[in-house]
Amino acid sequence: MSFPDQAERARLDKWLWAVRVYKTRSLAADACRVGAVEVGGLAAKPAREVRVGEIVTVRQGIVTRTLGVLAVPASRLGAKLVPAHCKDLTPPEEYEKAREQRLQHLLAREKGSGRPTKRDRRLTDRLWE
After folding, report:
1. H helices within 4-91, ranges in order?
2. What is the pLDDT of residues 103-122, one digit of tens each?
């Protein structure tokens, strides 16, 4: 029985931090603990070893990102090096959800602010152009 080389596997929380999915390793570990991270469709703990070729699913807010593990870095990567270690398999519809939510937030009016004025309507119309 052969074991994968240490360069081909790493802790899940460390990998998520290294490929810049989370800003800190503790945030990545917390996300694993609450069940926001899955590997191969199963909830994963922070210490679970992730290997090359596995699919990692991460829920961040309303977006569910799907990432393929291409390589395991030794330490945190620069943003330009991330595509060599992680493939983004997230469908475009997931990113569209985030854009729609941001737009809805911009268009939302405070409760009790009354009917939009002509000026408000024109500003809203400019967003759609």
Report:
1. 12-18, 25-33
2. 676 667 777 778 888 888 88
pTM confidence score: 0.74
The token pair that represents 107 in the structure block:
């268009």
Question: Measured between alpha carbons, how far is 88 from 56 in angstroms, rounded to an integer?
Answer: 10
CB 70 within 8 A of CB 85: yes
For residue 47, count CB atoms less than 10 angstroms from its CB and return exposed for 0-12, middle for 13-18, buried for 19 or more.
Answer: exposed
**Residue 9 β-bridge partners:** 51
Cα–Cα distances (Å) from 104 to 17, 47, 98, 100, 101, in that order, read: 30, 38, 10, 6, 5
What is the Cα–Cα distance from 129 to 113, expressed in whole angstroms? 25
CATH class of 1-90: alpha beta
Domain with CATH 3.10.290.10 in the chain: 1-90
* CA pair distance 3, 101, nearest whole angstrom: 45
